[in-house]
Fold:
Amino acid sequence: MGKRTEEATLFCVALFSLWASSTSALLSPKGVNFEVQALMNIKYSLTDPHGILDKWDGDAVDPCSWTMVTCSSENLVTGLLLQNNNISGTIPSELGRLEKLRTLDLSNNFFTGEIPPSLAHLESLQYL
Structure:
């Protein structure tokens, strides 16, 4: 009975370690989700006359419930849908930090400047 308990304990520790390492992979040293940080930097770099991004919360665990954001089942950002909001500014290079981004819709806004080179790192991007 002792050997089974030891094996079960080791299994639980290994399972917990795997879970902890996968969830902390998205966290900064301060415990903040990297995607939340990137999206907040995007928000602060833009002019948003209708306040569509006002409910984005820098203290959130993840951004998956935010307006204009879609996520995968793993709670990774896969879509940023900012179209038709009169948003202005340069296209933020922080977009390149959203590694699983598949859809980026910036249409019918007032963005200026060039497309940042960081967007070239978005290997999953299918719609721009």
Notes: The helical segments are 2-24, 34-45. Confidence is low (pLDDT under 50) at residues 12-25. The chain is about 25% helix and 15% strand. Strands lie at 69-71, 77-81, 88-90, 103-105, 110-112.
